[in-house]
Amino acid sequence: MAVLEVETADAWEDVVSSCFVPLNCLGFEPAFHGRMAHAALDAGLSVSLVTTSGTSAERSARLAAHAGSDDLHLSLQRSATGLVCAGGQRVAVRSGSVSVYATDAPYYLDYSAPGQQQLIVQVSRSSLGLPRDLLDAARRRLAVPGLAAARTLFGFVAGQVPGGVGADLWVADAAVVARDLAVAMLRSSFATAPVLPRTPDGLRVAVLDFVRENAAEPTLDVDGIARRHYVSRRRLYDLFEALGTTPGEHLRAVRLRAAAERLADPADLRTVADIGYACGFDDATTFTRAFRRVFGVTPREFRAG
Q1: Tens digit of pLDDT for each residue in 132-160?
Q2: What is the pLDDT of residues 201-244, one digit of tens each?
Q3: Which fold has domain 215-305?
Q4: What is the H or E stretch that residue 30 is in?
């Protein structure tokens, strides 16, 4: 892992070219500052969190012609706005946008607005095992629809770079999981139904992300989690056994953590019962009993605290 910070245009061009592929940096905001947090997860996949005060760059036709790899960039725009251009297409990006472009073809990136941050997965196309026509279609489209699969991928890889806030989950091989999640994201972007990861660790990451995003729904239960991921209850329990817990215990823990955060927030003036319901508990008695079992006090006592 590496964290590099620079204050000049020449130094930033060197940093970007060493972590990704050679680029020509075309413009910089005054008083430029750039920070690159970079982690190579294996020989064919790396993750970078890129923060700048504003710049633009191009992968020229000459540079692309001498590419020594078949890498794709899967890029999540985390803040500010920008423009990604490749293959005669242009896509405006804003916070939450995901774009896909190839390093062996020319492209132009306009990230000149201040306050830029991108989370980028650079991965060899051949290592993904996807049909060429699907990869070509993704490149031509440039943009990936806002999908749960994209949230899962970038939520996971954010935890793999220094300073990146992502899913706090140990896995045996982060590169295998990241590649699995990338495949699921690209396949899902062309499918009518969600495409799930194929590896146990990848599926577990997807399930945990789903629970985190949907725990506030009071009707969500273990059966609902299993149905959403097309697995049996037994398979779901097997996934959670590696974490030393059960699906139901994990769901309850996520809801209780959310409730504790709201109860500790002086700006949240809702009643204890309303907070419990907002966090996924369908009645006040169940909420109070579960909260006291974990925190040793009732929600009301915790709030007064």
Answers
A1: 999 999 999 999 987 899 999 999 999 88
A2: 999 999 999 999 999 999 999 999 999 999 999 999 999 998 99
A3: Arc Repressor Mutant, subunit A (1.10.10)
A4: none
Q: Rounded to an integer, what distance in angstroms lies between the CA atom of residue 180 and that of residue 47?
A: 14
Asked if 64 and 87 touch (Cβ cutoff 8 Å), the reply is no
The whole-angstrom separation of Cα 222 and Cα 162 is 34
Question: Which pTM was predicted?
Answer: 0.93
Q: In the chain, which residue ranges form alpha helices assigned H by DSSP? A: 9-19, 61-65, 132-141, 148-158, 174-188, 200-214, 222-228, 233-241, 247-263, 272-278, 284-295, 299-304
Residue 6, H or E segment: strand 2-6
Residues listed for the chain: 305
Where exactly are the structural domains of the chain?
2-194, 215-305
Domain 2-194 in CATH 2.40.440.10: no
